[in-house]
Amino acid sequence: MSKTPVTIITGYLGSGKTTLMNELLKQNQDKRIALIVNDLGSVNVDSNLIKSGNVIENETLREMTGGCICCTLRDKFMSELQQVAVTGKFDSILVEASGVSNPTGICQGFMIYEEQQRDMAFYLNNVVSVVDASRIFTEFLDDISKKGNDTDDSDIVNLVMDQIEFCNVLILNKCDLLIKEDLEKVRSVVKGLQPDAKLIEAIQGKVDTEDIFNSNRFDFYKVLSSSTYQKSLDRDQANEKNGMDDFGITSFVFKERKPFNYKKFSKFLDNYPKTLIRSKGYVWFSNKPKIMMLFEQAGKNLMLTGISEWVASYSKKERDEIFSYYPKIKEDWDEKYGDRNNELVLIGRDYNRDAIINSLNDCIDNRY
C-alpha cells in the first residue's frame, strides 16, 4: 500500500490558516482529503468554521484539542495520522496546526515516529507557513515600530519568526492590505529570513493548490539548514565570510566564552541597533552561571528565556553520564568554562558590525 502524504499548515493566530484550508478543500473536491485540526482550547472554533463551510463530510475531520501537536499532543498526533492513513481511503491528509505551535517540534515527531515504526503509512509532504503580511509590517518592521506599541508581545513575534524560518512553502497572506512599497519591504524581510522556501503571495488564502499538494517529500535537514540564521552558523563554523543575500540582508556571529554582565547587557538591549532584523542565540551571565539563556530578537521585540542548566554546572558523575549519551558535547568543551558560551547570530541591513561587536564586548564580565 502506498503511503499517504501529509501537509502541515502553520501560522500564528489570525494569519489565515482556516481560510486557506477552506480554499484548498473547495478547489479539490474531487480528491479524498482527510483533515486534522489542532486547537489549544476545549472548543475547537476553527474546525467548526470548516464544518460550516460544507466542504467536507464530518467523518473526514479529526479534532485534537487541549494541547499542541508540536509537544504535548505529539505522540497522540502521530497515532492519529497512522489510524487515518492505514484505512487507505484518502489521497492526502491536511493538518491545521495550532497558531502557537512550533513547526520544528512537529517535524521532529515525524522523524521519531519513522524511526520507531516500520509500517508507517504516511509521510510528511510539505510544511506551509501562513504569514499575515499586514501584521508583519505594522508590528515587526523597524521603520514602522517607531510609531510605538506598548504591547509586550516578544514571545509572539519570535514564534512567528520561527514559523517563517522553518518551512518549505511560505504564503504571504492578506497582501491586499498593504500598498506596493510596503509589501515589497515585507517580502524582502521574509524572504531574507528563509530564502529557500517557495514564496507565494495571496489574498484571502487563494493559491494554486499544485504548490501545496504535490509529490514532494519534506527534507527536515535541508529546511533546518536553509534559514539565514542557520546558514550564518554553518558559515561561521566553516570560517567562511558571511555574504550578502539577494535581499540586502547580511549576518555575522558573535562568540565569547566569558559571561556577560547582566546589567551591562540589559543596557545594551535598551539601545538595541535598529539595523538588526533578527538575532538569536545562547548566552550566560556571571550572576547566574548555571543557567543557559536563549536570546531572541525580532524587530523591536527582545526576549531572554532561561531554558536549561549548562552541563558544566552538573556534578562530575552527572557530566560523565551525559557525555556517554551525547559525546559530541565534549568536542566543544572548554577546560575552564565547559560548555558555557555566548553564541549569537545577528541578521540585518546596513549595520555597523564593528560597533555592535564592540558594544557586546563591553558587556562581557572580564572578572571571569
Would you write up a description of this structure?
Strands 3-2-4-1-5-6-7 form a seven-stranded parallel beta sheet, sandwiched between helices. Helix content is 34%, strand content 24%. The N and C termini lie far apart (61 Å). By secondary structure, it is an alpha/beta fold. The chain has helices at residues 17-27, 45-52, 74-85, 103-116, 133-139, 142-145, 154-165, 180-193, 220-224, 228-237, 262-270, 316-325, 353-362; strands spanning 4-10, 33-39, 61-65, 92-96, 122-132, 169-173, 198-201, 250-256, 276-285, 288-298, 301-309, 342-348. The protein has 13 helices and twelve strands. Strand 6, helix 8 (180-193) and strand 7 (198-201) form a beta-alpha-beta unit. It folds into two domains: 4-224, 3-Layer(aba) Sandwich (Rossmann fold), CATH 3.40.50; 228-362, CobW-like, C-terminal domain (Hypothetical Protein Yjia, Chain: A,domain 2), CATH 3.30.1220.10. Mean pLDDT is 86; it is low at 142-152.
